[in-house]
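Bumping with the actual sequence this time:
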Amino acid sequence: MDKLKNDSNSKKENEENVTVMQEVWSWIKTIAIVIFIVVFINKFIIINATIPSGSMENTIMTDSRLIGFRLSYIFSKPNRGDIVIFKFPVDESELYIKRVIGLPGEKITIKKGNIYINDSKKPLKETYLKEKWTYKNDKITFKVPNDSYLMLGDNRNGSSDAREWAEIAFREGKARNEKEAKKFSYVHKDKIIGRAIVKYYKGFENLLNK
């Protein structure tokens, strides 16, 4: 009887161990699936970014956190006024966030703190600017390539954007002359990572209509 009892207890313990192992394995699989989904979403669907500078103030404040949508321009093109995240032309290991100002093929003229598109008599209406534009605000002309976009920050007095990138490229040895340097003023469509859609830290705000 003792032996039968011991065999019964041993069988019960084995069954309990199998049940525990099955439960542990189930949790491991669940956690692995969740991690895969999170990584997949972050790599292919959304961009979760923290803004390190004030170049987009007051639209997006320094240290704000936002979510961008990577698939925004799969079946459409960026529009003027969109806030986009892209690879910095001078150093593609860095991501920048700016506003789309110039579209492919356009002539953009900066004159006395105003932007004129294709020699229009009326300046572009820019209600999003932080303050009166005084820095690099006159006698600048861009001819946007047919496959690229012109990006400027909303804080024009404190933004490193298309007005400076050619100078930076030349200074860092990325271009041998002025003609080569000018190419760094523009962002190729393939280098646009996604569109900023919502700010969720330092205030929740929809960025699609900002």
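The tokens above came from a reply further down the thread. The mean pLDDT is 90.
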